[in-house]
Amino acid sequence: MTRVAGHGLLREGAIYDENGHLPHGAVVRSGPGRGKCECGSLSEVLPSTAARRRWHADHKGEVGPFSSRYESGEEGR
Ligand SMILES: [Zn+2]
Question: Which residues lie within the region annotated Disordered (predicted)?
Fold first, then answer.
């Protein structure tokens, strides 16, 4: 997993509401919701933590030093 300074996926893809708060103050990592980046960016409502992680990888590609051709090695072997 590549880190871009100032852009960490908060709580490993836990769900945030449209105001960027944890719903009910609880960390929930399953089911639909928004991902939130350390920089404050919120994703759309996404169906799963995996989707939130993909959103965040794309987000880092946009803001970070990596172009879209960069792929995380996570899914490789
Ligand atoms: Zn960010």
Answer: 53-77
Amino acid at 43: S
41 alpha carbon to ligand 1 midpoint, in Å?
6
CA 62 to each of CA 19, 27, 41, 74: distance values in angstroms, whole numbers, following the listed order: 22, 26, 12, 19
- Name the residue among 9, 13, 16 with its Cα closest to residue 63: 9
| Full-model pTM | 0.78
Q: What is the pLDDT of residues 3-28, one digit of tens each?
A: 888 999 999 999 999 999 999 899 99
Distance 24 CA to ligand 1 centre (A): 23
In DSSP terms, 36 is beta-bridged to 42
Tell me how far the alpha carbon of residue 58 lies from the centroid of ligand 1, in angstroms: 10
